[in-house]
Amino acid sequence: IMWSNFFVQQDEEGRGRGQRRIHKMSDSQEGKIKLAFFVSIIGVTLTVLGVGTEFWVELAQPKNFSGNQTCQLAHYGLWKGCIRTLWVADIDPERTSCGPAELPGESNCTYFKFFTSGENAVIFKKTTNKNLNLAAAIMALLSLTMMVMGSICIAMSLSKGVQFFLKPASFCFILSGVLVLLSILIFHQSVLALLSSNHAIPLHHELSWSVACVGSAGATLIIGGFLFVILSLPFSPWQRCLPHKNSAT
């Protein structure tokens, strides 16, 4: 009886291992998941680059506003703002405003106090709307949190060899992309609120390369999320041939 129970147990364990082997993803499927994850990682990298830099917007005075050989330009992001003093002689003669910020000059940067004392910042006698700036920053932080959660889901999916975690990963990456784009929209509204707070000094404003990074990141994250949605479908075009392979084996 002991030997018969032993063989029955071994047979059941063998069947269980066979079932797990059947449900485990193939090498081809794992490669596609890694490719989609690479697309998402590009979006994550662009987001971190854009969120961490202070070139979201440039606010430029007319280059002859002060009437001397220098002019001033401000650029800031979610956390920090800088005032740059440039030489008028270095500016393109056809350009009416000071800039661009890449020109050589003196720079004075300070961190915003929205998150500490709650004070508004004053840039060229114009006052920021801290509620809008805080909302944009919170959206960006929530987006980064969702990216981390999505990456954990993909890591678990690859380590366990199952597709169960692809759907929550797709949700996290798509939501992170939407939150990043919302952060840009709210930030742009904060810039418009800043410009309308005081009309004493005319300013030319334009969104800078950090916003381009974050916008590209949002689109990339949404694309990566939809790739995971496709891979998680039981009869997606990328998986249609997999049952035939399993049945042949």
Automatic annotation (TrEMBL):
Transmembrane segments: 35-57, 134-158, 170-195, 207-235
Highest taxon, organism lineage: Eukaryota
UniProt-annotated location(s): Membrane
Gene3D superfamilies: 1.20.140.150
Keyword list, A-Z: Membrane, Transmembrane, Transmembrane helix
Membrane topology qualifier: Multi-pass membrane protein
Any one GO BP annotation for this protein: calcium ion transport
Alphabetical list of Pfam families matching this protein: Claudin_2
GO cellular component: L-type voltage-gated calcium channel complex
A Gene Ontology molecular function term of the record: calcium channel regulator activity
Primary location group: membrane
Protein name: Calcium voltage-gated channel auxiliary subunit gamma 6
Source organism of this protein record: Seriola lalandi dorsalis
